[in-house]
């Protein structure tokens, strides 16, 4: 009996709690609001009354919300005010406040959630008497919602002289019209062949559900520079046509592709990340380069209005509206005469080049070779051509000036400055190591030796070692400096930290994550081998230290940034001046590796370097003329030694000094 009594009491309590859970709609209100805020429209539909479900199908209900909420509303919040006491009737009114950020601005409204006790279900529960007014207050079930966009102009990008690098111009819309085909199959084949597109892509465009016999069916876009070829195709193929439209144009094509980048229609992943910023399925967004980096500045703010349209097609109410704001232009310090000259000199071979004004820090050129046509990428490159670019062993899609590479013997200038400043390198003391190979006495290096290219046949001091590019001298210098001092000195130059620059650059690294793993690695680092990696822009900037008595000048890319700003002072004026003189000796000495750059009227300073990375070779020359032009160049070409880069450097000084 005792057990039975306990069970009965428990049963009574359970029944009482169950009854309480259905006496008020509080839980149902919370569930509906949660589904609403989570955009779970199917679950919302399950909570509306059976009468509502008879008037609108789940498919139409979900589609109505998706078209309006997912298409026009970036973010929203709902606050339901649940009363302290309910009426106790079978219908309860719950006030809600809805605040939303739409593609046309902010909007807020108040409405009532009308919950009724629905006993027609297998399990009676509180259900919502839903109507379209819960989307917008004056929206009836027969009305529609329309968005009228007001397009903003994207900001443009210009070089130092005001030449357009990314501008709003004209592009060619490519199209076919079904009822103009005379022999559809053969015409599609010819269009595909001459446009570099697949027949399948054209057929897919024609098979869209909305296409009718007289429809203009877009199949792609091309830059206006291809107009002659497109007009010829129009004359030859009856079913093909074209029209001109507004689009993004990159006048200098491959010469600025990696620097400027390109825009494309937003991807699904990008839209998910940027929807709250006002992006829609129709948005164009920067994909690479400055188009991506400066997206916020260039994009501007789209405008438009959201309106309710009644069944007669008349405007019923404006929900939200905002004016479009054009994007801001970007003005660069780039000089296209320098940019194009360097691009032409690399001639499609893998490599990179950076040109700075060593006095102001202005970036005159940022070149990566080989390259690609950003106009084609922006308008949609056919898959076969895209695949060809991706599989090209010369990697035309790789941005080399933002990457990092082994600097080879150009590092010797940095090692020398650190050594002189630390007191471990006396520039007047000589090293006399005969032959082409060396390792310390009583070392545990085994069969490993530091190898030099040229045997100087005698003792060398700092100037001779810099001129000959003597690996043995700088290996010994690094060992004398020591791990801690060399690391500290390199970090003073900006190694192992993000380099401040408008364009995102990879960090220069002195070692891998484990630091110096051996004495051999320390020695190799001194002459630019080991695991050291430098970014080309950073490498160029480090050489301004030797021009400015120990002050490293901040590189800038945009007009309006302060010029001639000192970024850091990594070494003393004495050490920097000494290295400057040694670099000039590399050119003036008949034994210097850059002697071919010598001129009667100008004092050129330079350091050559040939880095060996596995089976790959990187030829470097970093040079500057600081008396007249302030032109500083850092040029690297893959697959060759520095000797083959020197003619490019020589040509640049011939062009821009004389």
From TrEMBL:
Residues 351-639 form the Penicillin-binding protein transpeptidase domain. The keyword Membrane applies. GO terms for biological process: cell wall organization; peptidoglycan biosynthetic process; response to antibiotic. Residues 1-18 form the signal peptide. Its main location: membrane. GO terms for molecular function: penicillin binding; peptidoglycan L,D-transpeptidase activity; serine-type D-Ala-D-Ala carboxypeptidase activity. PROSITE patterns: PROKAR_LIPOPROTEIN. One of its GO terms (cellular component) is plasma membrane. Keywords: Membrane, Signal. It is an enzyme of class 3 (hydrolase). Residues 153-318 form the Penicillin-binding protein dimerisation domain. Its EC number is 3.4.16.4. Pathway: Cell wall biogenesis; peptidoglycan biosynthesis. It is found in: Membrane. It catalyses: Preferential cleavage: (Ac)2-L-Lys-D-Ala-|-D-Ala. Also transpeptidation of peptidyl-alanyl moieties that are N-acyl substituents of D-alanine. Belongs to the transpeptidase family. This is serine-type D-Ala-D-Ala carboxypeptidase.
């Amino acid at each position: 009996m005792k057990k039975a009594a306990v069970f009965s009491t428990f049963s009574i309590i359970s029944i009482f709690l169950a009854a309480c859970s259905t006496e008020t709609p509080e839980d149902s209100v919370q569930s509906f609001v949660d589904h609403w805020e989570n955009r779970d429209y199917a679950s919302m539909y399950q909570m509306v009354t059976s009468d509502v479900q008879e008037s609108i199908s789940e498919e139409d209900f979900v589609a109505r919300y998706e078209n309006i909420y997912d298409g026009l509303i970036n973010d929203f919040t709902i606050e339901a005010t649940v009363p302290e006491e309910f009426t106790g009737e079978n219908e309860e009114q719950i006030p809600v406040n809805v605040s939303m950020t739409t593609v046309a601005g902010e909007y807020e409204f108040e409405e009532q959630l009308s919950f009724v006790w629905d006993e027609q279900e297998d399990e009676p529960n509180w259900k919502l008497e839903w109507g379209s007014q819960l989307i917008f207050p004056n929206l009836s079930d027969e009305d529609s919602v329309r968005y009228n966009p007001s397009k903003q102009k994207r900001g443009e990008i210009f070089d130092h002289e005001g030449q357009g690098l990314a501008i709003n111009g004209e592009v060619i819309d490519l199209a076919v019209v079904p009822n103009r085909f005379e022999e559809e199959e053969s015409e599609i084949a010819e269009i595909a062949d001459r446009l570099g597109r697949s027949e399948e892509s054209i057929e897919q465009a024609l098979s869209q559900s909305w296409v009718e016999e007289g429809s203009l069916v877009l199949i792609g876009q091309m830059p206006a520079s291809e107009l002659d070829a497109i007009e010829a195709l129009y004359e030859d193929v009856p079913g093909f046509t074209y029209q001109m439209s507004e689009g993004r144009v990159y006048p200098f094509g491959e010469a600025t592709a990696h620097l400027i980048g390109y825009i494309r229609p937003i991807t699904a992943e990008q839209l998910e990340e940027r929807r709250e910023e006002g992006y829609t399925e129709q948005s164009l967004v920067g994909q690479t380069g400055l188009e991506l980096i400066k997206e916020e500045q260039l994009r501007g703010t789209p405008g438009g209005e959201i309106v309710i349209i009644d069944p007669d097609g008349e405007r019923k109410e404006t929900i939200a509206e905002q004016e479009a704001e054009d994007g801001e232009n970007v003005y660069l310090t780039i000089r296209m005469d320098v940019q194009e000259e360097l691009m032409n000199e690399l001639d499609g071979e893998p490599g990179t080049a950076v040109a700075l004004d060593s006095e102001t820090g202005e970036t005159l050129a940022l070149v990566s070779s080989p390259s690609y046509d950003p106009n084609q990428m922006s308008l949609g490159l056919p898959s076969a051509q895209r695949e060809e670019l991706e599989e090209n062993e010369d990697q035309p899609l790789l941005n080399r000036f933002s990457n990092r590479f082994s600097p080879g013997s150009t590092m010797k200038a940095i090692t020398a400055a650190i050594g002189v400043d630390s007191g471990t390198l006396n520039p007047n003391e000589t090293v006399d190591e005969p032959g082409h190979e060396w390792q310390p006495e009583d070392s545990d290096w085994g069969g490993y030796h530091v190898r030099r290219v040229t045997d100087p046949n005698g003792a060398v001091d700092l100037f001779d070692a810099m001129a000959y590019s003597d690996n043995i001298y700088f290996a010994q210098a690094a060992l004398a400096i020591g791990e801690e001092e060399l690391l500290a000195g390199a970090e003073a130059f900006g190694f192992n930290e993000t380099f401040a620059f408008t364009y995102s650059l990879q960090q220069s690294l002195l070692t891998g994550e484990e630091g110096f793993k051996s004495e051999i690695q320390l020695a190799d680092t001194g002459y630019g081998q080991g695991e050291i990696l430098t970014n080309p822009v950073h490498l160029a900037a480090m050489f301004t230290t030797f021009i400015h008595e120990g002050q490293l000048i901040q590189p800038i890319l945009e007009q309006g940034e302060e010029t001639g700003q000192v970024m850091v002072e990594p070494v003393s004026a004495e050490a920097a001046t000494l290295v400057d003189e040694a670099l000039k000796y590399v050119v003036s000495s008949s034994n210097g590796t850059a002697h071919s750059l010598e001129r009667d009227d100008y004092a050129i300073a330079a350091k050559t370097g040939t880095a060996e990375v596995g089976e790959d070779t990187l030829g470097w020359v970093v040079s500057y003329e600081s008396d007249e032009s302030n032109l500083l160049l850092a040029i690297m070409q893959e697959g060759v030694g520095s000797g083959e880069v020197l003619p490019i450097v020589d040509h640049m000084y011939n062009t821009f000094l004389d």
